[in-house]
Specification:
Largest sheet: 8 strands, parallel, barrel
Order of helices and strands: EHEHEHEHEHEHEHHEH
CATH topology: TIM Barrel
CATH architecture: Alpha-Beta Barrel
Number of domains: 1
Pathway: One-carbon metabolism; tetrahydrofolate interconversion
Organism: Paenibacillus methanolicus
InterPro entries: FAD-linked_oxidoreductase-like, Mehydrof_redctse-like
Number of strands: 8
Structural class: alpha/beta
Mean pLDDT: 94
Protein name: Methylenetetrahydrofolate reductase
GO molecular function, one term: methylenetetrahydrofolate reductase [NAD(P)H] activity
Shape: globular
Low-confidence stretches: none
């Protein structure tokens, strides 16, 4: 597996600054093939995605915070570009965002299309990514949504996790020459698989196994696919030992 020419991003959750710093150090010192960091914006955490991305920027050149569209009222002063500038952020991933469960936090009817368009108007040089969810709807509906994001000015895409290369190949044909990061996330239990199937309508292949071996083997196959097709890979190590997962993908680190 030749990953030298690949762009490989990893999602790290900013639980707190110390935890994030430890994971950043682990990735930086042990897995040189990973050259980008994604930081999600989770309501249960006090650290916002751009704050985590600014912290990651001290170690990595490419740091991409997730921006939740529903958090921003575009009818009022749009201060987000200034916030991103203050934190040295020049790339973002725009997602719609899930409403808070208790609704104590204000949300707005802003769509990802609205926010993509607004950001590109305010900061034309900023690289703005959109999300692809292969399980959201049928192929035609998702393809049309992708086209609307391109019309809004999006520069590339990150996908929800794939678990089957055959489905990934279909989406690659749909995407043409667009920049894309293929999402890969370990599913380590039948309970987790059931969650993905029932909540997100995910599709698993017949030979799927909720084991570290199966998940790291699949991740390596996606890296091979990325190297062959000139596409990128987005690792989302959810509910798994980070070192064990990365060692399984890239090989045990030299101590």
């Amino acid at each position: 597996m030749d990953v030298d020419a690949l762009n490989i991003s990893i999602e790290l959750i900013p639980r707190d600054t110390a935890h994030l710093e430890a994971e950043l150090e682990l990735v930086q010192t042990g897995y040189a093939s990973i050259n980008a960091i994604n930081i999600p914006d989770l309501l249960r955490l006090s650290t916002r995605s751009w704050e985590g991305a600014a912290q990651a920027g001290r170690r990595f050149d490419t740091c991409i915070p997730h921006i939740r569209a529903i958090d921003f009222n575009l009818k009022q002063h749009f201060g987000l570009p200034d916030v991103l500038d203050e934190h040295g952020i020049d790339q973002v991933l725009v997602v719609t965002g899930d409403p808070p469960q208790d609704m104590t936090r204000s949300v707005y009817p802003t769509t990802s299309l609205d926010l993509i368009r607004k950001l590109k108007q305010a900061r034309p040089a900023m690289k703005v990514y959109g999300a692809i969810d292969p399980y959201r709807d049928n192929f035609r509906a998702e393809y049309d949504y992708i086209q609307r994001k391109l019309d809004a000015g999006v520069d590339g895409f990150f996908t929800q996790p794939f678990f089957d290369l055959r489905l990934m190949e279909v989406y690659h044909e749909l995407m043409g020459r667009q920049e894309i990061y293929w999402g890969v996330s370990p599913v380590m239990s039948e309970r987790s698989r059931n969650y993905w199937e029932t909540k997100n309508n995910a599709i698993f292949p017949g030979g799927f196994e909720p084991t570290l071996e199966w998940n790291t083997r699949f991740a390596r196959s996606v890296l091979d696919y990325g190297a062959t097709t000139g596409t990128n890979v987005y690792l989302m190590p959810i509910k798994v030992d980070l070192k064990a997962y990365l060692d399984g993908i890239f090989g045990t680190r030299a101590e």
